[in-house]
């Protein structure tokens, strides 16, 4: 999962000026919009490599919804006034993507009293994973440490703002189900320390401060103020835990899906559109999932027959879970195996399907917290910080070796790492180059990062492993099919929960009968779907669209079809809505197929 996932970070330099007043106007508005985005979202600014706002945190509140929306409507009005008739194809694509991004946010304003009132859940944020907040902050100069202390001092205020939003959710009757919240008190307990120097928030003030050029007589004062600030954070954590347990959870929604909210079905339709960037109804998504489950199931049965296994799909994967030869008990050995898959098997074959591959580094590291099986964090355009594939090694024995190839391809190459470095190396305006791949609770009131493009490519990359000959035995191929089946089931289950009144048990049982996962893992997965409505549907829908466009191009070009050129067009434009990706491919076909 690319879930902390494809974050395009800072690339210095200016977009080359395009001649023409309409194009100049567009660039001017884009630049103004970008400056406002960074000022409004300081943590996001830090992630892009812009450190001007490193002493601040984003502000939250019901009273801030309207002024933010008014600002975006102002940008949208100015963009709509631009005459795009003389734009070339590249300019037109940028114009359409910018307008879509602004319009998506404005459309989401209708739902401001829904998802966005619930900023705390078991999947994200400072209660679940403060490591990311710390690890993405620079610590070199004295100013870096001073800025970070300012941020630490503001965390209690941000938590107070969160609670105000959550009180409004209770008032509106639009709260999370308890499954989204049950783990949060325990997560907070993991952050609480009696000795604040043992807190994750204090780690920069040890090694980094020691190694810095800050004068020794200043370091003591910095550390003292940091300890005071972190003491305040500990109290804020305790207050948040008490509020969640005593006020919020007793008022949690009683339905599993958001269809239990006021106009919840409409909210879910908006969430689907936000993630898919296509006009698909929940029923269309649900039906597509059923079709894909049936198709993939046939491939799995054929592969099991070739292996000589006569049982059911769940029985096959139970055998895999129980058979020691399919597991590695050493975290170190598991990490080395991932390195072999990526560096020695996948990388050498990329030039069969891709051209002009940017030379930006990739690192493979142990995940610093207990999250998904793997995640990818983008690096920098200058290569000073590599892209990182984080592998969850907390319980190495739980990883089936037949699943490793598909996960590695999804998160690294030809998946999210390749996707990231192409976009980082392309000439794109900043609002397209840097995606705020976080705060998944906010859609549909959020600027899109085009989930179906991002995660659709990751799943498509798993499929490309077949073309590259990387699934070199039927067991590993079953691991690949198991991963694909998992994503197909999500279409059925996510829509079932949020639109067709499915229960949690019904969703878990559906996936248990068709996937490789255990009941415990599937309960965690289904809880994720209930927390982030629509997000899980993006993988399969995006992959299917990319495959559809590739087949359209192949038929149009015939024997002259160049898959490398197709992949370049998909990747070099960075994250785009799927309807714009379709336009780009159709224009390529029209102009080049003859």
Walk me through the structure.
Residues 1-20 form the signal peptide. InterPro entries: DUF885 (IPR010281). This is DUF885 domain-containing protein. It holds the Pfam family DUF885. Keywords: Signal. With 594 residues, the chain is mostly helical. The chain has a domain at 21-266. Helices cover 58% and strands 2% of the residues. The protein contains 23 helices and three strands. It has helices at 21-40, 42-48, 65-80, 89-108, 130-135, 142-172, 184-191, 207-211, 216-248, 264-276, 282-307, 313-322, 331-346, 404-411, 416-425, 430-433, 451-467, 474-499, 504-512, 519-531, 538-557, 563-572, 578-592, and strands at 362-366, 374-377, 387-391. Strands 1-3-2 form a three-stranded mixed sheet, with helices on one face. The longest helix has 33 residues, at 216-248. It is globular and about 70 Å long. The chain starts with 20 loop residues before the first helix and ends with a helix. Residues 1-19 have low confidence and may be disordered.
């Amino acid at each position: 999962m690319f879930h902390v996932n494809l974050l395009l970070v800072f690339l210095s330099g200016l977009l080359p000026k395009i001649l023409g007043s309409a194009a100049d106007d567009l660039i001017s508005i884009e630049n103004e919009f970008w400056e406002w985005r960074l000022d409004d979202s300081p943590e996001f600014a830090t992630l892009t490599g812009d450190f001007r706002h490193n002493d601040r945190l984003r502000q939250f509140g019901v009273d801030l919804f309207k002024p933010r929306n008014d600002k975006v409507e102002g940008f949208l009005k100015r963009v709509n006034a631009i005459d795009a008739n003389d734009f070339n194809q590249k300019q037109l694509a940028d114009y359409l993507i910018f307008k879509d991004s602004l319009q998506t946010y404005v459309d989401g304003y209708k739902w401001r009293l829904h998802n966005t009132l619930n900023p705390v859940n078991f999947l994200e944020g400072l209660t679940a994973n403060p490591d990311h907040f710390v690890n993405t902050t620079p610590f070199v100069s004295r100013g870096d440490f001073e800025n970070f202390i300012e941020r630490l001092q503001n965390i209690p205020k941000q938590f107070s703002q969160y609670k105000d939003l959550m009180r409004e959710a209770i008032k509106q009757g639009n709260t999370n189900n308890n499954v989204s919240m049950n783990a949060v008190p325990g997560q907070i307990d993991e952050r609480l320390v009696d000795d604040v120097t043992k807190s994750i928030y204090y780690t920069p003030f040890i090694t980094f401060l020691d190694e810095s050029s800050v004068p020794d007589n200043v370091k003591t004062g910095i550390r003292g103020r940091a300890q005071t600030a972190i003491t305040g954070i500990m109290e804020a954590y305790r207050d948040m835990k008490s509020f969640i347990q005593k006020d919020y959870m007793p008022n949690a929604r009683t339905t599993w899906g958001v269809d239990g909210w006021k106009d919840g079905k409409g909210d879910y339709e908006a969430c689907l559109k936000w993630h898919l960037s296509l006009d698909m109804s929940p029923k269309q998504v649900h039906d597509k999932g059923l079709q894909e489950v049936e198709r993939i199931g046939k491939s799995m049965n054929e592969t099991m027959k070739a292996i000589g296994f006569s049982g059911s799909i769940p029985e096959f994967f139970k055998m895999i879970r129980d058979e020691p030869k399919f597991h590695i008990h050493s975290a170190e050995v598991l990490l080395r195996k991932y390195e072999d898959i990526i560096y020695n098997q996948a990388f050498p074959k990329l030039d069969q399907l891709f051209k002009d591959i940017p030379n930006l580094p990739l690192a493979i590291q142990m995940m610093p917290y207990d999250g998904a099986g793997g995640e990818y964090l983008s690096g920098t355009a200058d290569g000073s910080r590599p892209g990182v594939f984080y592998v969850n090694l907390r319980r190495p024995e739980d990883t089936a070796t037949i699943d490793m190839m598909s996960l590695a391809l999804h998160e690294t190459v030809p998946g999210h790492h390749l996707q990231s470095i192409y976009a980082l190396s392309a000439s794109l305006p900043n609002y397209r180059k840097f995606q705020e791949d976080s705060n998944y609770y906010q859609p549909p009131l959020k600027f899109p990062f085009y989930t179906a493009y991002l995660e659709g490519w990751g799943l498509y990359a798993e499929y490309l492993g077949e073309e590259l000959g990387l699934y070199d035995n039927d067991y590993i191929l079953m691991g690949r099919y198991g991963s694909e089946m998992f994503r197909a089931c999500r279409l059925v289950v996510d829509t079932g929960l949020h639109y067709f009144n499915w229960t949690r048990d019904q969703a878990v049982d559906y996936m248990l009968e068709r996937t490789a996962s255990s009941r415990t893992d599937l309960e965690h997965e289904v809880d994720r779907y209930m927390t982030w409505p629509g997000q899980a549907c993006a993988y399969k829908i995006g992959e299917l669209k990319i495959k559809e466009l590739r087949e359209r191009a192949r038929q149009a070009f015939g024997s002259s079809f160049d898959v490398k050129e197709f992949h370049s067009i998909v990747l070099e434009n960075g994250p785009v809505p799927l309807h714009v990706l379709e336009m780009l491919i159709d224009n390529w076909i029209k102009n080049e197929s003859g």
